[in-house]
Each structure stands twice: as structure tokens, then as C-alpha cells.
TrEMBL record:
Entry's Gene Ontology cellular component terms: cytoplasm
Gene3D superfamilies listed in its UniProt record: yst0336 like domain
TM region(s), chain numbering: none
Domain Polysaccharide biosynthesis: 1-123
InterPro entries for this protein: PBDC1-like_dom_sf, PBDC1_metazoa/fungi, Polysacc_synth_dom
The protein, known as: Protein PBDC1
Length: 142
């Protein structure tokens, strides 16, 4: 049960981070460059804006992911630790939009989403909400 609470807390912190900082500038690990290069070399055609669970969970997918993940053993702390991953990167973590993945899968996909601009929708949406609230507050006090 403790790992599930930790995974949920990690998801909340990460979502708050990409809501408040432009994700294209985020660095998630000390080895983002290596993770991104290895991920796109091995999974160049993988659609990352909206993930298909089968791309992570099917037996053929697991066979493809296993060597990718193992190359980061000893490089990324807790590389195989369980984390939550959003299927559709334009949406928040919900029961329908969340899948269980390893930490290195999370890093690979989220680094790619950040670099390729897919997570910007979350940041832009949050920024627009903050601006609208500030305008409303100014008008209410104005």
C-alpha cells in the first residue's frame, strides 16, 4: 500500500510541476539526454501524446521494453520502481487516464513529451486559468 501512496504523490507533484513550469525546459534526471536518445532510437514510432496500454503491457511490448529498461539499471535510481503514467498527456491523472509503468518508462515517455511539446498543453491551460483568475480579481476590485 505504501508504494501506491508514493506513486500517487509522485504523480501529483509531477502534474503540479508541468502546470507551473514550461515543460519544454524541464530536466527530470541527470541523464535526460541519454534516456531521450535511447528511447527515440528504440521507440521512434511510438505515439506518446496518447498512449495505447498495449504498447506498454502486451507480451511483445514487454519484450521490447525490457532491454531498454535494463540499460538504465544503476544509472537511474529506482529505475524499475512502479509509477503512474498518464495515457493522454493533455489530461490529468484519473482512473481512466492512468496506467501503471516502471519509473524508467515514465521518464522516457515524459522526457519525450516535454521535449516534443506535448505536455505544453497542460502548462498553457494552467497559465490561461491563472490569467483569467487574475483578470477577474482585478475587475472585482477595480
Amino acid at each position: 500500500m505504501m508504494w501506491a501512496m508514493k506513486a500517487a504523490q509522485h504523480a501529483e507533484v509531477y502534474f503540479n510541476l508541468i502546470s507551473s513550469v514550461d515543460p519544454t525546459f524541464l530536466k527530470l534526471t541527470k541523464v535526460d539526454e541519454e534516456i531521450y536518445a535511447a528511447f527515440r532510437e528504440r521507440f521512434g514510432r511510438l505515439r506518446i501524446d496518447v498512449l495505447e496500454p498495449e504498447e506498454l503491457k502486451s507480451e511483445p511490448a514487454k519484450e521490447k521494453w525490457r532491454p531498454f529498461c535494463m540499460q538504465f539499471e544503476g544509472v537511474v535510481e529506482d529505475f524499475n520502481y512502479g509509477t503512474l503514467l498518464r495515457l493522454d498527456c493533455s489530461k490529468d491523472y484519473t482512473d481512466e487516464n492512468t496506467i501503471f509503468a516502471t519509473r524508467i518508462q515514465f521518464f522516457a515517455i515524459e522526457i519525450a513529451r516535454n521535449r516534443e511539446g506535448y505536455n505544453s498543453v497542460i502548462y498553457n491551460s494552467a497559465t490561461q486559468r491563472k490569467m483569467a483568475a487574475a483578470v477577474k480579481a482585478a475587475c472585482d476590485h477595480g
